[in-house]
Amino acid sequence: MSEYEFSDDASRLDAEWIHRTLATHSYWARGRPRELQDAANAGSRCFGVYDGERQVAFARLVTDGATFGWLADVIVDPDRRGEGIGKLLVAGVAAEVDRLGLRRTLLKTDDAHTLYERHGWEPATPAGDWLVRERP
Hints:
By secondary structure, this protein is an alpha+beta fold. It has helices spanning 15-25, 34-42, 85-100, 113-117, and strands at 5-7, 45-51, 54-63, 68-76, 104-108, 122-123, 130-134. It contains 4 helices and 7 strands.
């Protein structure tokens, strides 16, 4: 297993990798145009996980920077899944949420509940597809 690094340095983001991975391998952003993804990234706090210089995971946090956040576009390179990268990514994002002091952070998932729940997100709806992380 490689040694992976979490980073919030926007200059390290690989916009082409982010777009290609989300547009081809996610159920929520399939076919999303590159221009739309770039605009979403520009309006968000973005995070990556890297194997050396190669990006292998991505997440973005839409936030006012003070009270609320929405975690979106969380994805790990399909060839690297099962190596703990998602855990590192979500732990890094949760630490940033705590550093900012956000009281409430939402996300929507169809298939990664356990990953988020270990970092404090809980079901926010009866269907359980929306999760919330609340802090006093």
